[in-house]
Description:
Layout: H1 19-24, E1 32-35, E2 38-41, H2 43-53, H3 65-91, H4 95-113, H5 128-138, H6 140-146, H7 151-154, H8 158-167, H9 169-173, H10 178-189, H11 196-203
Antiparallel strand pairs: 1-2
Amino acid sequence: EEKEILYEYREVNPYKKEKEFLDINPLGLTPAIAYHGKALHESLILNEFLEDEFTGSKPLLPKDSFERARCRLWIDHLAKKFTPAFFRTMQTQEEDKQKEALNELVKTLKTYLDQVKGPWFLGEQFSLVDITVAPFIFRMYILEEHRGFKDELVGGCWPEYKKLIKERLSVIKTSSDRQHYMEFYQRYLRNETESEIAKAVRAGKPLP
Length: 208
């Protein structure tokens, strides 16, 4: 959406993956793309691929090599620190451990936001870093309703950044209705899902 690339969008039931999808991606992981008869998956890798492949469209990484590396460092922070904390906060059942996970989530979010120049991570340029955190910001209401997350726990530029992300047209166009998210994430909130992410969180291992 941001790079205005033509594509055909298809939703996949994560608990009932059709043969057509598995033919494209035997691992059954989403998101995935089929491009010129070849398949790729994993969100962060797909983002980088689209940036590399479609160089004539809107850039989502800076030209400066140092700044590009800096972007990748903070994408890595979000993937290795923030995202696992998000899922731990959802899955954990014991109240004391929920608070511990929530505190870790807030800490990793604050650490990231300290690097946000405003209004976006790089300043005026919307980038792959903002895109990395956007899906989780869009779903933050789940933690607000079920795990005690509040904006004031984070403070700083968080309320404005959160609002800008949620109102970004590309985010809206690539997000599902709340109803569908809640049907899906109820399994995480009860810690009943058998997804690879859930299994890793239970085992205390890095996310796949």
